[in-house]
TrEMBL record:
Species annotation: Leucothrix arctica
A GO molecular function held by the record: formylglycine-generating oxidase activity
Entry keyword set: Membrane, Transmembrane, Transmembrane helix
A Pfam family it matches: FGE-sulfatase
Segments traversing the membrane: 95-119
Coiled coil: none
Protein name: Sulfatase-modifying factor enzyme-like domain-containing protein
Alphabetized InterPro entries for the sequence: CTDL_fold, Sulfatase_Mod_Factor_Kinase, SUMF_dom, SUMF_sf
Residue span(s) of domain Sulfatase-modifying factor enzyme-like: 151-412
Length: 420
């Protein structure tokens, strides 16, 4: 078919479809499996808007591609990236205009991509522009191997819309999703602060010394849960001698504190708030996932495939040199400069547990209305999990006094606009 014939067939997205395409392309809504327009938009996003080109191309289902091949899409993506780099800061919008990407997908145009500000970004251009009032420079990230200090280093996380939970075509490609991760839904999160790392042993030790606090594991020599690898099946059992000070493996001040319960975390936060005259809290589940994804729709903040150079999880290879927990900050940060949200330790959040997301808040707040307030949520997976168990959508539950050498936490705080 000639270029002229192609031009005659090309049409822009109908006005009624543009908003839906826009939301799917940004990961703001999950694609409806029965809506071909949604599926097309999701497929375009999966190989044009992720940085994991090889995986994205290989995962494309050709039955949804009417007039463009996966390889053609990859070439367009590569050329666009090269052109953006050559122009040194020219917006993606202008680059796409320059190339005139008007290739038809099911009779619709990829022109919707012109709405996108950055490759793989889940936040709209208007929202990005609105971030100009955020004082990021007041919350610098620590560099690699920089001492984490005795207080959590807080980062300012921009607000935006995140698709929370397991989205078809994203998380399910990374080993499957748990029933508790459904239904995926868009949440709007306001700017907030979160600690760059999990609270460390050194930071928690300062609290213990100052407050004379006794953790749940230490009370009546109750101990901490660990995996007993000496028994068939490796059952998880309570071991009285395990505590935050002695979790069953080596740790120093740079390691994340573990063997702490949700209740222990709340007591640390109360002390920290009083000590610093700043109101701290656990992040909500929505805030945690928003920060963990770092603006990406992929199963992990770095892409669609688990990688031992990116996180501490089951096995020892690549940068993952630790059989158990690793010191904080040993793996690459996401776009928001947050580290270690995938693997290392499960992290307590504020929300009480619900078996699904049906009825969950969409405003980024913690879901604290529930039938059993003694059950709380943990996020992120841990050092013993497989690849599917460290996805940004992974979640699990635990009672408020549960503790294990797989559990830790990080803190959050409300952001105060200095201009108000």
């Amino acid at each position: 078919m000639s270029q002229k014939d192609n031009d005659q067939d090309q049409t822009l997205i109908a006005k009624d479809d543009k908003e839906q395409w826009y939301k799917v392309l940004h990961g703001e809504i999950a694609p409806d499996a029965d809506n071909k327009n949604h599926i097309n938009a999701a497929k375009i996003r999966s190989y044009l808007l992720t940085r994991d080109e090889v995986t994205a191309v290989n995962s494309v289902d050709d039955e949804y591609l009417d007039t463009i091949s996966a390889e053609e899409a990859r070439v367009i993506y590569r050329r666009t990236v090269e052109e953006a780099k050559r122009r040194g800061g020219t917006s993606w919008r202008n680059v796409f205009k320059t190339y005139g990407v008007g290739i038809l997908i099911g009779g619709l145009s990829v022109y919707a991509l012109l709405l996108t500000y950055g490759v793989g970004n889940r936040t709209s251009e208007s929202e990005l522009a609105d971030h100009s009032h955020l004082n990021f420079s007041d919350y610098p990230a620590l560099n690699e191997n920089e001492n984490v200090g005795t207080l959590p280093n807080m980062l300012l996380i921009p607000g935006g819309v995140t698709n929370k939970g397991c989205s078809k075509g994203w998380d399910d490609l990374a080993g499957g999703c748990r029933p508790t991760e459904f239904p995926p839904h868009a949440v709007t999160v306001e700017p907030f602060l979160i600690s760059q790392h999990e609270v460390t042993y050194g930071q928690f030790r300062k609290f213990i010394a100052a407050a004379k606090y006794i953790t749940d594991a230490e009370r009546e020599n109750r101990g901490c849960v660990h995996e007993d690898t000496t028994k068939p099946g490796g059952p998880f059992v309570m071991k009285p001698e395990l505590t935050w000070e002695s979790p069953g493996y080596y740790q120093d001040d740079s390691y994340p504190v573990t063997c702490v319960s949700w209740s222990d975390a709340q007591n640390y936060i109360a002390w920290l708030s009083k000590e610093t005259k700043t109101s701290y809290r656990l992040p909500s589940e929505s805030e945690w996932e928003h920060a963990a994804r770092g603006g990406k729709a992929t199963a992990y903040h770095w892409g669609s495939v688990a990688n031992n150079n990116q996180a501490n999880y089951s096995g020892e290879s690549g940068k993952d040199l630790w059989k158990f927990a690793s010191p904080v900050g040993q793996f690459p940060a996401n776009k928001f400069s947050v580290q270690d949200t995938s693997g290392n330790l499960w992290e307590w959040v504020q929300d009480c547990w619900h078996d699904t997301y049906d009825g969950a808040p969409v405003d980024g707040s913690a879901w604290e209305v529930c039938n059993n307030n003694s059950q709380k949520v943990r996020r992120g997976g841990s050092w013993d999990m497989n690849a599917a168990g460290i996805r940004s959508a992974i979640r699990s539950k635990g009672a408020i006094h549960d503790r294990s050498n797989l559990y830790g936490f990080r803190v959050a705080s409300d952001w105060q606009n200095p201009n108000k």
